[in-house]
Amino acid sequence: MKVKSIRTRLKLTQMELAAALGVSQSLVARIEGGGLPVSANFAARLQKALDAGLVLAGRNRRERLAAHFLRLAQENYLAARRLENRHGRR
Predict the structure, then answer these.
(1) Of 5, 17, 44, 58, which is most buried with the most CB atoms under 10 A?
(2) pLDDT in tens, 28-80
């Protein structure tokens, strides 16, 4: 996967991609530079973030970021609800 070429085509900065992944900008730079192998789990997260960017590529940057972070918040809420349900909390 050519992370940098996809990220730049989507007009995302390293900071924006890092925020979507919950990692530092320097980690994104190391991955793009090929200096850091990534786990299968992290590769899946990276692909998901880049796929979200591809879907939103037609919008302006602010709209893309707002939609992306809203989707992340919704996913986090749903994950928290699943955990609560597993442990019998409501």
Answers:
(1) 17
(2) 898 888 877 777 787 788 777 777 665 545 556 666 666 666 676 677 777 77
| Global model pTM greater than 0.90 | no
CA triple 8-14-17, angle to 5 deg: 90
C-beta atoms surrounding 74 within 10 Å: 10
With 0-12 CB in 10 A as exposed, 13-18 as middle and 19+ as buried, what is 41? Answer: exposed
User: Check: CATH 1.10.260 for 3-86?
Assistant: yes
1 and 43 Cβ atoms separated by less than 8 Å:
yes
- Domain limits of the chain? 3-86
